[in-house]
Design goal:
The protein is mostly beta strands and 173 residues long. The chain has 1 helix and 14 strands. The chain is globular and about 45 Å long. Mean pLDDT is 84; it is low at 5-28.
Length: 173
Amino acid sequence: MIRGLAVSILSLVFILSLPAAQNAPPPASTEEPVSRQPFTLKFKFRDHEYTDPFDKTPYVADNCIYVFANEHFGVHVKVVDGEVSQLSYEKDPSKGELDVELTIKKSIMVMTILNRMDRTLYMDLFMRVPNKPGLFEVNKVDLQTKRPNVEFWPYPVEEIALKTPSFRGKPAH
């Protein structure tokens, strides 16, 4: 009888603890974003060689994509309740919802992004150019679905940052 009572009490405690466990917030992500180790960016543009050192830099962090000259990678886009909730790095460009590339073609810097999602994604575009400190805002881009989206510049670009992802028209900054 005592054993039966003990089992009943333990069962009751277990059952009462279930709703609390179901309503508990998910554990905070302790995952560090995938980053480039400190490096020196080197590229040639119109017969001029550019060299600039960079500290450890993430590919994607805080819903911002950072792409440097001559890089090509993918980005996963997590959508919750119809809104972008998280961006994350994917080494293989063909596996991400976004395929991001910044290259040099015939003395022109070319950024190409393929959006594999079924909705247009809007982002603020910032860039860093040689011999100028920091990133500055350039424009807003709308990444149309299922086709390459191309931006190009006739001057050297070291880094592009794509921020503020949204499905709701032009992003606000």
